[in-house]
Amino acid sequence: MNQEYIDGLLALATAQARAVKIPVSQEIIPSVRLNRRARTRFGCCIRRDGKYIIELSAQLAEQGSEDAILQVLVHEVLHTCCGCSNHGARWKGYAQRMNDAYGYHIRRTDNYSELGIEDNRPVRYYVVCGKCGRSIPRMKRSPLVDHPERYRCACGGVLRVEEAGKEQPYIGKK
Questions:
Q1: In the chain, is it the N or the C terminus that has fewer CB atoms within a 10 Å radius of its CB?
Q2: For the chain, which residues make up each domain, given as ranges?
Q3: 21 Rama sector, left if φ>0, alpha if ψ -120 to 50, beta otherwise
Q4: Interior/surface letters 57-79, b for 16+ CB within 10 angstroms, e for the rest
Q5: What span, in angstroms and rounded, lies between the C-alpha atoms of 119 and 113?
Q6: Closest CA to 99 of 82, 115, 80, 75
């Protein structure tokens, strides 16, 4: 989708929030910034010099449906409200108001499959359960990857780590 279209969706997201009496900032820059490097987040709200910059993953802009893009933009617009820089009670209340009014599914986080885009992040490790065989993909080293002996699978099984090929993509739930 082109920049002009995405900017129009930002204007729509802002107008919808104001229509249900959500006090979004008047200082939102009307042009969405596309982030080509974002791999683990779909949107971002940045406050700089009293103005708000709304950023969107270029992958979402290119592959996502209008509804998915609009939902992420609304999520970020809600962060411009006073007291909503995090995902606290006020932000959650506004998100619920938008969900009720417009049928969104706004919450603190989204994932690739819910937004209808392909997850092509490289998997470096798989944490595998020795009892049930569940395989948990991990893109980075973490305490779970470094010390699987400290954790158990939901079934109670012992976990082990297997290294994946560097080019093997994560195949998320569809």
A1: C
A2: 3-115, 119-174
A3: left
A4: bebbbebbeeebbbbbbbbbbbb
A5: 8
A6: 75
**Under a CB-based contact definition with an 8 Å cutoff, are residues 54 and 47 in contact?**
no
- DSSP for 62-108, written as a single string: HHS-HHHHHHHHHHHHHTTSTT-SSSSHHHHHHHHHHHHHH-----S
Which single residue is written with the structure tokens 């779970």?
Answer: 144
Distance CA 86, CA 91 (A): 7
Structure pTM? 0.76
pLDDT in tens for each of the 174 residues of the chain?
799 999 999 999 999 999 999 999 999 999 999 999 987 899 999 999 999 999 999 999 999 999 999 999 999 999 999 999 999 999 999 999 999 999 999 999 888 888 888 888 888 999 999 999 999 888 889 999 999 999 999 999 999 999 886 444 444 443
What's the rounded Cα separation, in Å, for the pair 138 and 145? 8
* Six-digit token string for 92: 């959650």
